[in-house]
Amino acid sequence: MSLSSASDIEQALQRLGDLLQFRRQRFAIAIVGGAALNLLHVVARTTSDVDILAFADPAELVQGGAGALTEAPSPLPTELMRAATEVARELGLDPGWLNNGPTLQMRSGLPPGMASRFAWRQFGSLWVGVAARQDLIALKLFAAVDRSGPQGVDTMDLLALAPTPAELAWAVAWVATQDASPAFASTLEKVQQYVLHTLSLGAQDDA
Known about the structure:
The chain is α/β, with parallel strands linked by helices. The protein has 9 helices and 6 strands.
């Protein structure tokens, strides 16, 4: 089985949460990336993993708190990974389907106010915070500039998020703080213009 839709991702997270609940363990993870986009129904595409940006305190969420974020540990907790490995085996997922690849962004800094905008959902004794659309625009823009350029999958995801010019400008302002090099600034400008141009063409076609 691949994580090819929101329902596939929800099935894997529910199974993981049920296993943790059976073992009287609980965790709260904040996620970004393709899994978050699928869960928000922005895209419906296959992703190989669920990207953990950060951890939160489940007890705080149970009490109705916002869930203060902390950097995800590396490696991830043994109890969580043991359950994730069992889910991978049961559902035929990639062994690394649950990972903390993006967590170093916690050190570099998140978009302003991002931590307060996660939408938290409960799967058994696993709480999953899904990043807000506004913040996924910023993170996908950063990824497009840093990794793939205007023609990469991150830019395609960014186009699927369909930011307004104001939303894109807000994201650009944050992304610019992540790297002061001229080359990065040049690529950022290229991606921004590509997204604005492509979205404007789409708007004209719809008119």
